[in-house]
Amino acid sequence: MTIMDIIGSDVFRRVFFYLLSAVGLYGILKKCGKKPWQAFIPLLRYYYLAAAVKKEKEGRVYVLLTVFQLAIDYMTDLIQKGNPDPVNDRNYLLFVALGLVVVLCLMLYVIRIDAAICEKFGKRKRWIWLLEFAEGITYIYFGWSKKVQPVITDEEETEGARVSGAVIDVMKDGLTVNIEKRTAKVQYKERVLLKDIHLAIPKGHMVLLLGGSGAGKTTFLNAVTGYEKADANIMLGGRDLYREYESMKYDVGFVPQQDLVRLNDNVRLTLADAATLRLPGNISRKEREKRVNEVLEEFGLAPLAGTLVEKLSGGQRKRLSIAMEYISNPSLFILDEPDSGLDGVVARGLFEKLRDIADQGKIVIVITHTPDRVIDLFDDVIVLAKDVDRTGRLAFYGTVDESYRFFDKTGMEQILRSINQKDEGGEGRATEFVERYAGKLMPAEG
User: Fold this and answer.
1) Contacts of 379 (CB under 8 A, 6+ apart)
2) Half-sphere exposure of 126 (CA within 13 A, CB side)
């Protein structure tokens, strides 16, 4: 086969025009601030293009219709192979009719997306015809010509509440958090879950983490602990938690809302298993047993050492869950609703124990849905809220008394009500407070 035969082949032409379009799409996606390598993903690249020009729904429908069309083509081919005269076959005619309908729908959605591309790059609608009949070359022009640049609309200029641009200096004997953003893929689209969160917590402080549903509390904690890394710098005791995660992961204790204990084990065995998992492997058996006994005494569980977990009360079981994480003597201790399901007196005793842990030089961060009944035990409060773009933002960080003055409220539940959305029964003032606090963090000019 000669070179001209290869160039003239159908496969060569398909590959050539695919790559031509891909190179053009690469430039378009890059100009639109998207991931340019997505231009080389078959079929889905048109979805990413549509999303880049604010036509994500049309892009999704286009992909589904294309898949449907491929399935119809496959079925008509099967019928043709099995029937020498498919014109008289009802199934064949049905699939042909469906194919025509899908093609017409595809044309409609392609025109919508092409019109959005023209609008995005400030071109008149007549450019749609070039996009239709000279796709690859037109993509190259839009993507790589310096004369053609995307138009920024007023809607795109509004990116939620303003960003502080702050970077908190590393606190040697505490926790320093500088989160630029935390993103996640939602239906192939990148969504910002957290943004612009900067704070430093000294050791010995007990901190309340406050925020409404969807404000990003759990996402924030996962980013701080390194469980789900963000675009961030997390320093604990002057060490980079992300870079040294393997050696530091047991320096962070996390107690989830649900108790992760085996009901048919006794208390001592439960703690012994936790010690085996969480203490360094070079620690002797005698030292592990000593640590188990220390934690049993510290959490008031020594008299219950031989008791089955299923026989414990709710408060005792919660203390055991906390003790399991505390066995490694972490510097940072995080608890998600430790008082869930507990009555006021038992919950108060649990929080007093957490206060004791903080007073030992630990950093304790707690989420609770009933903060006002134990707020006197906390040093500081972190308030997370959803801004206008429904992104988790820092609305406040400081002492409890400072938070009352900042929000002009007299209780934590009142503060929570002020930042919750109106459709959640709140005042809908989250963006106001996010911007006000960002203004406090902004570096002074000059």
Assistant:
1) 205, 206, 207, 358, 399, 400
2) 0
pLDDT higher than 60, residue 71: yes
In contact, 51 and 34? CB cutoff 8 Å: yes
Residue ranges covered by each domain of the chain = 3-157, 174-441
**Helical segments of 327-429, H only:** 344-359, 400-407, 412-419
Q: Please give the share of the chain, as a percent, with pLDDT higher than 90.
A: 32
Nearest to 311 by CA among 346, 267, 274: 267
Confidence of residue 411 (pLDDT cuts 50, 70, 90): very high
Question: What φ, ψ does residue 281 adopt, rounded to 5°?
Answer: -65, -20
State mean pLDDT over 172-201.
86
**Residue-level pLDDT at 155:** 44
Q: Residues 196, 438: contact at Cβ < 8 Å?
A: yes
How confident is the model over 115-142, as a mean pLDDT? 83
Distance CA 270, CA 383 (A): 35
- Quick one: DSSP state of residue 308? B
Asked if 201 and 233 count as a contact pair (C-beta separation under 8 A), the reply is no
Name the DSSP letter for residue 369. Answer: S
pLDDT at 443: 65
Angle between helices 56-82 and 90-120 (to 10 degrees): 150
* Token reading at 276: 């085996």
Residue 74 has pLDDT above 80, yes or no: yes
> Which residues are within 8 A (CB) of 205 and not within 5 positions of it... i.e. 6 or more apart?
174, 358, 363, 364, 379, 380
- Secondary-structure class of domain 174-441 per CATH: alpha beta
Q: CA nearest 267: which of 306, 230, 240?
A: 306
Determine if the pTM surpasses 0.85.
no
Radius of gyration of the chain from its Cα atoms, rounded to whole angstroms = 30
| Cα 44 → chain centroid | 22
Alpha carbon distance 348, 371 (integer Å): 11
pLDDT band, very low/low/confident/very high, at 205 (cuts 50, 70, 90): very high
